[in-house]
Structures are given as structure tokens and as C-alpha cells.
Design brief:
single chain, 381 residues, TIM Barrel, nine-stranded mixed beta sheet, 15 strands, globular, binds iron/sulfur cluster
Amino acid sequence: MKFGPLKDSAIYIHIPFCDHKCIYCDFYSIITTDNISNFLSTLKKEISFYSSRYSSDRIFSSIYFGGGTPSLMKPEYLNEIITFVKENFTITDDAEITMETNPGTVDKIKLKKFLQSGINRISIGIQSFDNYDLKFLTRIHNKETAIQTVLDANEIGFDNISIDLIFNLPKQTREKWMSNLQVAIDLPIKHISTYSLILERGTILNKLVLDGRVTIQDDDYDAELYEITINFLGDQGFHQYEVSNFTKPGYECRHNNAYWRYRDYLSFGPSAHSFVDKKRWWNFSSLKRYISEIEKKGIAVAGSEFINNEMALNEYVMLALRSNGLDLNEFKSMFGESWLIQKNDFLIEIENRHLAVRSRGMLKLTKSGYAICDEILSKLI
Ligand code: SF4
């Protein structure tokens, strides 16, 4: 047993199964559930392995089921994993337990069972409320199913509901995007993540664009839609606490905040990335390999890196400015003052241009600053 303050950390579990592959997606997932029981027993072995190393000096205040499509699983299955995690780690009584959920994979009965199994936050991958766009994205649901899933989740007792939306889809007009946002804020949700469409290498969408069969709208238009989003959601009481994330008061995602505040997180499952005690490692992105490596060694690590001081400083600044702001006192205690002195002129410049504000020891981007966050970061780090 180690003594000293317990570190507040996060747990991520990657469920690699999907109903089918969406054209824009580069997350690791497979469309067969043949190996599902093998996966569960392997996952437990991996959890046990890391529990013997990391359970004594930390507590965990969030568990996040991502994927893949965790909501494709039987609720009993996630219940078994949650119970096992609780047996192996100290999970706080009020832990946030999130499940990514796809409309079209759940009904009220299933959602109720997920709620009873301990899931207390759901993040619904809606992406669009426009049936044309949903078809283009090859999602399995339509607008009506998406709305019904939110209403069902709310009705059976989920208070903490988040949705994901994608903007700047091909041919998406300002009006169409605005009507997406309008439908969203009329629903009983507490949190919205909005992402600009990104072309990931190796996806079908990327190939369609390279072949000239799909045209992506330009960066200026993307920036315009982003600005519309920030202004509209701000007016509707959704506070922006990260470049892509907006929340009603009190519903910031604890799990995401752990990443953005540079806390430790342990992750399990194929392709999962962990970050603990300034070391980062990632698992094989293949279920077969993941299972065979854990059988042989207890772990399935495909690669790792130690984060040196310079990398840590850059990552810390980037994550902080993209989210709730740079805590200057915490920064000084972690990295000293020399970087701040060196960057002082630029920091004053972005304050004078109203791209950032300094208040109560925090340096935080403004709405205009968020809009050009990447440009600011490229000059800082
Ligand atoms: S459902 Fe989600 S994880 Fe699965 S392929 Fe589609 S976008 Fe990717």
C-alpha cells in the first residue's frame, strides 16, 4: 500500500463491436460479435492485471464506455463489466458512468436496464437530425429514431444526456445546420458535442473525396458554421467548456475533463490508450491480437512513450486552452515560470485582441479565441 493523497483518475473501456461501419469513422470497430464472450473474459484479465499495479494509490470518479457501439451490447454484459471494475478498483460512490449510445440499438426496456446497471450518463451519437445527411453518413437511424431515443432516455430516468452532432457536411446549408441545433435544444439534453466533419485517412469518405465523388466545403465556411454554433448555443444557456463541447450548468463531462486537465486515465480493450504517471501506452487495434496478447502476457500493449517535460508542458497548455483555461498557478507549480515569461508578449497580445482573458489566475480563450484556437496554439507551442 502506498501512502499519500489518492490520485483522481478515469477509466475508459473500448467496446469494439458495431452494427456496420460508417463511412467517415476511423475508430477501431468490427461488425461481428462472434468473439464477444472471449472479449469479456479477456477484458477481465486485462482489468485484473492493471488493478494489481494501479489500484492502491488512486480513486476513479468516472468510467466511460466508448467504441464501437457499447449500446449494442446486452445490459447484463455492461453490468458484469461495471461490477468487475468496482471489485478491482476504488470507484467513488458518485462516479460518472457514461455509455456511448447509438439510436437504433436501444428501446425503453433496454435503456432502463442500462440505467439499473449503473450507467448514469448517456452520450447519444445522433450526428444529424436531417435524414438526407444521416443517409449520407450511413448511420443506421433516422431523425425520428434519434429524437425518440433522447425522449425515451429522459422518460425512463436518465438526467444526464449528451448528444453528438457533426457540422459542415457536404451540401449542408447554414439553415440546415441551424435547424439541427434548434431540434437539439428543444430536447431534454444537458450537453452537446459538435464536431466539424473530419476526413480521416483510410475511411470510405476519404476515398470518395479523393475520387472527386464527394466535395467537402471549405475552411471559411466551416469556421462560419462553428461561430454560428458557439453564438447560438451560448444564447440558449449552453456554456462552452471546450472547443467542441457545450453544457448546461453542472453537466460538464467529468470523464472528458480528466483528459483535458491532464489527469491519469487507464483504458481497457483493443485500441485503447492509457496515460498514467507520465507514461502513455496503447493497445493493439485488433480484437484477435488483443485476445492473444492478453492470453500470453496479461497485457496487449502495441506501443508506449514516456512524456518528457517539454512534451508534458505542450500537451498541458494545449489541453487547457482548448478547454476550461490555463490555471497559471498550477502551471507554475508543475513547470516553473520561464515559459510564461518567454511567451508573455504573445499572451498580452491575445488578451489585447480579446482572444483570451485573464481572470482569477486563469487564462481562458474567449469565443473569438476558440474560433482560432489552432492558430493560437501553433504560435504558443
Ligand atoms: S457506429 Fe460509431 S464507432 Fe461504429 S462505425 Fe459508426 S461511427 Fe464508428
